[in-house]
Specification:
By secondary structure, the chain is of the alpha/beta class. Helices cover 34% and strands 15% of the residues. The chain starts with a helix and ends with a helix.
């Protein structure tokens, strides 16, 4: 399938303005009939893309392409046909796509490429197609082993959003930004309920991000100290909300040593809360290759803070930020942990399970290590929703689609010169691709 798509991309690329001009020059030396025939042949070769309805339970209202994104693509690529599978759950209604002149269909079997957001149910997979979605198989997730096996059996080419990267190895696509945006907001919502100082409307009950941010005017803080971690997509999303909050950012030194008559926050990266066990200077590359040589110094900050908004990336083997024993310390002052990263029983000790959009907060008793009502004394209020972008599906979809049409679809529709799509293809021609050969034992263990 990808070989066929390569041919179609090449044909589409031939129709770019510089090449058309070149063909016009050729007509001065060849017959107009040849040019006409050749041009019609190129226009005959098209690519058909289908936007899948989301079928995973619980329902996900997000889309990979909004109606406006679809219209932009059709106006930009003359050799593209695009259809959207009818759905009664997505945040953009069928009528919104129809208003942009987009085909709404029930059956996408005539499409070459099928794009969605979450995993496709096994019974809905169509043989010999190219799929784009989050497969959640690259970390050998046991619950999706059968999905990968089925795609191999059906000769499907699977392109996973999670491994679409540029030549620097940086991720090109994801919903991390909106996980950070909603997660930070939920942190403030949780603190309002825990402290009893104010009440915010849940993000999923807001029409959009504008309404959600309007709710932030209700936040009432005195002299609270807030820790923010993370510098990637999630961390950047968190920082957008921190700026909207008008809470002052202070230096690490001031956070540790000064008191304030206003709420403040500190933004930490992994080098700020990890130190060498032997006391020698921090070396970033050494931390990546030998994390066992390091220990956490996060408690230096936790004893001064009331709220922790966790947007960091955690790598297996790295030191935990704080342990269950750390939380039992009389100096431990955190009242709220908004754990956007949501690694269960991992680097943030109070995250003992994921929470849900409907019930986003639970309590962690620091002494018993058990779940309790989050309003009880000696408990940490934990917000650990693991599908945060779903709370603002329209905004998250618009952001995702912007990146899709800017960074990914040109490689599909024009040419994958940097092998962005090739390197993110997990399986093809009924087998794993070389980049994902490490999954061999994963599929054989089934």
């Amino acid at each position: 399938m990808l070989d066929m798509l390569t041919t179609k991309r090449t044909c589409s690329q031939i129709q770019s303005a510089p090449v058309i001009n070149e063909l016009r020059k050729i007509t001065k030396r060849t017959s107009y009939f040849f040019f006409f025939f050749y041009f019609c042949f190129l226009n005959y070769i098209i690519m058909k893309i289908g936007v899948l309805k989301e079928e995973k339970v619980p329902a996900d209202k997000r889309v990979p392409l909004t109606p406006k994104h679809c219209r932009i693509l059709l106006d930009t690529y003359p050799n593209l046909e695009l259809s959207v599978q009818s759905s009664d759950i997505r945040c953009f209604l069928d009528d919104m796509y129809l208003a942009e002149g987009i085909n709404i269909v029930d059956d996408l079997s005539d499409c070459d490429v099928l794009i969605g957001v979450k995993e496709v149910p096994l019974e809905s997979l169509i043989a010999n197609k190219t799929y784009f979605y989050f497969s959640h198989t690259i970390k050998e997730q046991s619950y999706n082993r059968a999905l990968l096996l089925k795609m191999l059996q059906l000769n499907i080419s699977m392109v996973d959003y999670e491994v679409l990267r540029n030549n620097k190895g940086e991720r090109l696509l994801g919903f991390g930004r909106y996980a950070g945006v909603v997660g930070a907001y939920n942190g403030f919502l949780t603190y309002g309920l825990k402290s009893g100082k104010y009440n915010l409307k849940a993000a999923h009950n807001c029409a959009d991000r504008v309404e959600m941010e309007g709710e932030m005017s209700k936040i009432e803080l005195l002299n609270e100290k807030i820790i923010v971690t993370g510098n990637g997509r999630v961390g950047n999303g968190v920082m957008e909300i921190m700026k909207k909050s008008n809470i002052r950012q202070v230096s690490k030194l001031d956070f540790l040593n000064k008191t304030f008559n206003e709420a403040v926050f500190v933004h930490l990266n992994f080098m700020d809360y990890n130190i060498k066990i032997d006391g020698s200077s921090f070396n970033q590359q050494e931390f990546f290759t030998n994390p066992e040589l390091f220990k956490s110094s996060f408690m230096d900050y936790a004893i001064h803070a009331n709220i922790f908004i966790a947007g960091h990336y955690y790598s297996s083997g790295s030191p935990y930020l704080f342990t269950r024993e750390d939380a039992k310390s009389l100096d431990f002052n955190l009242l709220v942990v908004a754990d956007i990263s949501c690694d269960i029983n991992g680097p943030v000790a109070s995250t003992i399970r994921p929470s849900t959009i409907a019930n986003p907060i639970y309590g962690y008793n620091k002494q018993s290590e058990q779940e309790v009502n989050f309003r009880t004394e000696d408990s940490i209020a934990v917000m650990a929703v693991d599908n945060l972008p779903c709370e603002l599906p329209k905004d998250a979809s618009e952001d995702f689609g912007d990146e899709m049409i800017d960074k990914i679809l040109p490689s599909l529709l024009i040419g994958d010169d940097n092998q962005i799509i090739f390197n993110a293809t997990i399986c093809k021609d009924g087998d794993l691709t070389p980049n994902f050969e490490y999954l061999r034992s994963y599929i054989k263990a089934y």
